[in-house]
């Protein structure tokens, strides 16, 4: 199981992704203090923590970026730094899912959709509808980014082991 976080300065998105069965167990956006409590409660589980990490691209950044960096550290501490965790940059997500560092959020979203079966109803059956949900039903906002982190970690790990 992969517990992946898209951190923010006040709220963060997270997913719990079962990489063996390729199922999203949980997808939520919550207050960062609630995230700390969730991480502390999950310490005993055999999940791997993957967090999107801030990376410098040479442009000035605001206070919210630094606040997000503080939360990343707090999340790792709450998880227990003795357990395994992986920091994944946005560039790593772009390369893992789209094979290009020039990919945009819409490209990443489409790459995620393409990885899941079209089993739901509606225009995008991977997402589906309320009456006929697909495997991505309910994923919204920062949950997409958290799922991208989980999938990127999984793809990188499998590539390191020569899996497909």
What is the rounded distance between the termini? 18 Å
Query: How much helix is in the residues?
Result: 25-40%
Mean pLDDT: 92
| CATH-derived architecture | 2-Layer Sandwich
What is the makeup of the main sheet?
5 strands, mixed
CATH fold node name: Nucleotidyltransferase, domain 5
Count of individual beta strands: 5
Along the chain, the helix and strand elements come as: EEEHEHEHHH
Q: What's the structural domain tally?
A: 1
| Cα-based radius of gyration, to the nearest Å | 16 Å
Outline the fold blueprint.
Blueprint: E1 2-6, E2 11-18, E3 23-31, H1 32-41, E4 48-53, H2 63-79, E5 85-89, H3 90-98, H4 105-114, H5 142-160
Parallel strand pairs: 1-4, 4-5
Antiparallel strand pairs: 1-2, 2-3
Helix pairs in contact: 1-2, 3-4, 3-5
Q: Can you characterise this structure?
A:
The protein is an alpha/beta fold and 164 residues long. It has one domain (2-115, 142-160): Ribonuclease H-like superfamily/Ribonuclease H (Nucleotidyltransferase, domain 5, 2-Layer Sandwich). The protein is 40% helix and 20% strand. It has helices at 32-41, 63-79, 90-98, 105-114, 142-160, and strands at residues 2-6, 11-18, 23-31, 48-53, 85-89. Strands 3-2-1-4-5 form a five-stranded mixed β-sheet, sandwiched between helices. A hairpin with a 4-residue loop joins strand 1 (2-6) and strand 2. The model has no long low-confidence stretch (mean pLDDT 92).
């Amino acid at each position: 199981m992969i517990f992946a976080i898209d951190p923010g300065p006040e709220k963060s998105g997270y997913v719990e992704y079962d990489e063996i069965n390729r199922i999203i167990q949980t997808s939520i956006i919550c207050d960062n203090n609630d995230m700390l409590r969730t991480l502390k409660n999950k310490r005993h589980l055999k999940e791997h923590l993957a967090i999107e990490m801030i990376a410098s691209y040479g442009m000035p950044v605001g206070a919210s970026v630094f606040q997000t960096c503080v939360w990343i550290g707090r999340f790792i501490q709450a998880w227990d730094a003795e357990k395994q965790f992986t920091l994944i940059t946005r560039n790593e997500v772009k390369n893992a899912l789209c094979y290009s560092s020039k990919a945009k959020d819409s490209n990443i979203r489409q790459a995620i959709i393409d990885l899941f079966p079209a089993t739901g109803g509606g225009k995008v059956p991977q997402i589906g509808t309320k009456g006929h949900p697909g495997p991505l039903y309910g994923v919204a906002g920062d949950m997409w980014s958290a799922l991208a982190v989980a999938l990127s970690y999984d793809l990188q790990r499998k590539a390191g082991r020569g899996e497909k």
